[in-house]
Amino acid sequence: MDRAVSDLSSLPSEGLTDEIGVDHESAVPLAASAARNRARQAGLPGAMPDQAAVVASELAGNLVKHATGGTVFVQLLPHGEGVEITAVDRGPGIPDLDRSLADGYTTATGSLGAGLGAVRRIASEFAIRTHPGSGTLVNARLTVPGAVRPTRWRTGSVCLPAQEERYCGDACAVAETGDSLTGLVVDGLGHGASAAEAARSALRSFRTAPDRPLDDVLASLHRALRHTRGAAAGVLRLHSDRAEYCGIGNVRAVVLSGGEIGHRMAGQPGIVGWNVPTPRTRTVALGPGAGVVLHSDGIESRWSHNPPTFLLRLPPPLLAAALAHRHRRIRDDATVLAVQAA
């Protein structure tokens, strides 16, 4: 059994994504503080928490000065080896990306002067995409020096509670299971602490043996949730040439291939922990570079109906952030997990 399992939302506050809406310059120090706190929580040494704050300040400052509808997401990395900061906007895009990435280049007065080039230099991993009319997305990851990170799979996730809720009834986890990657998205019924407890029970069950057949994983979740209010759950297993999906309730899986929607898969009717049919696993073939998105119903399902090619070609960390930013139902807990073979 592979023990490299990461709970992305296992506690009421830890594991959730910090969301900072950026519509005023006062949001800049909030983003910096969130990044510094998460970096310390991840155990980043020395000046790295302050570097994380610089990254968040630059990205939030860019949103204030150059974009509209901007958001900064901050969270721990899936395996706890660092922190990631993602900025998403609905701005005009960056007309000269190469120039903007030059270290020290900035067009904004009042900036720290570091610019996107220094963000890229500070980050252990960096990704940026921009498009006129679609805005700009930037992801910067800072990791513990010497941390061994999975390289076979690319993952991205966002997990957010409903507006004005302290607890999140959604959660997700990923595990490397031999030559495959297995992911879980769970949506506890309702909202608040009871829904969060159902989600945590599902995560505890999942991490005991994530390498089992997917129908066995769901059967185990069903037993574990019998004394909770229940949940919807979807389990995905990604191989280099195929994807397997098994779900109960309103967790959906969408296969992306070549900049197009390949397959849409919904869960069987039922409530995990209460009444479920015999779980069935569906398998679909994957071409090179294909990926899968797994999400709760806090993400509008219509996102996959005629989406722009720009969205479908985003790498997993940016795709997850884009879907949470543009297609989230704010009155519901929302989780999206994007995975792809590297």
From TrEMBL:
Domain PPM-type phosphatase: 153-341
Chain positions covered by the region annotation Disordered: 1-22
Pfam families: HATPase_c_2, SpoIIE
Top-level division of the source organism's lineage: Bacteria
Gene3D superfamilies tied to this protein: Histidine kinase-like ATPase, C-terminal domain (3.30.565.10), PPM-type phosphatase domain (3.60.40.10)
Segments passing through the bilayer: none
InterPro entries the UniProt entry points to: HATPase_C_sf, HATPase_dom, PPM-type-like_dom_sf, PPM-type_phosphatase-like_dom, Ptase_RsbX
PANTHER family per UniProt: PHOSPHOSERINE PHOSPHATASE RSBX
UniProt protein name: SpoIIE family protein phosphatase
Organism: Streptomyces desertarenae
